[in-house]
Amino acid sequence: MRFPTTTDDELEAAIDAASLAVRRGELVVFPTDTVYGVGADAFDPEAVQRLLDAKGRGRDMPPPVLVSASTTLDALAVNVPGWARALVAEFWPGPLTLVCHQQASLQWDLGETRGTVALRMPDDEIALAVLERTGPLAVSSANVTGRPAAHDADEAETMLGDAVSVIIDSGPTGGADPSTIVDATGDRGRILRRGALAIEELNAVLEPLGATLTDEG
Q1: CA 141 to CA 145: how far, in whole Å?
Q2: Residues in CB range of 36: below 8 A, 6 or more apart
Q3: Which pLDDT band, with edges at 50, 70 and 90, does 176 fall under?
Q4: Which of 7, 24, 50, 137 is the most buried (most CB within 10 A)?
Q5: Rg (CA), the chain
């Protein structure tokens, strides 16, 4: 079902519907600050598998996890280097995804993660409102793998409509580019995917700390 967000009442109904669907193990589509995302309860392996199936992705391409607060970083990740925390302080919420070592105690199955998790806090009021009610969500761009990411609800519905229970429609997203992905599992960071944040912006934060990123995007 598709939910508009023109009024406060419509927005509340949309967020309620999405959070209930997540608790039922279903998939939901909602806007982020980059593109529309399709999300599932990160702690529900069957829901995560449904997300991968809907996109046509294998377990070798695990989805990132979106969170509603930067403090959640330490609940989900370990051994986060200081330079990565500096990037979080500067760019969360925002289009920065950090690949970190995951907490070994986490009871989830995101796919073949090799002990890592990709984390992001989006800079979008609707996305954050959903995440505050659901907790961490496994979220990928709302598209079929190999096709362009959805920038509005129409595009998301065309590609994923049969697989999702709720689509929150807030019009076109403001971001044209996906998030920049940075590998924070080593002593020195690496850009794994170029995106909305340029390496120059990231290094401007890191250089005073004596750190820089390499670009493998």
Answers
A1: 9
A2: 29, 30, 141, 142, 149, 150, 151, 152, 153, 155, 156, 173
A3: confident
A4: 137
A5: 16
CA gap 119, 137 in Å, rounded: 10
- pLDDT for res 52: 97
Distance CA 40, CA 26 (A): 7
How far apart are the C-alpha atoms of 188 and 4, rounded to whole Å?
A: 44
User: What's the predicted TM-score (pTM) here?
Assistant: 0.95
d(Cα 108, Cα 102) in Å, to the nearest integer? 11
The Cα–Cα gap between 74 and 110 comes to 18
Q: Tokens for 68?
A: 């509603």
pLDDT at res. 142: 95
Domains (range + CATH), the chain:
2-210 (3.90.870.10)
Q: Which amino acid is at 114?
A: R
φ and ψ of 190, to 5 deg: -130, 140
Backbone angles phi, psi at 149, to 5 degrees: -65, 150
Task: Identify the pLDDT of residue 183.
Answer: 97
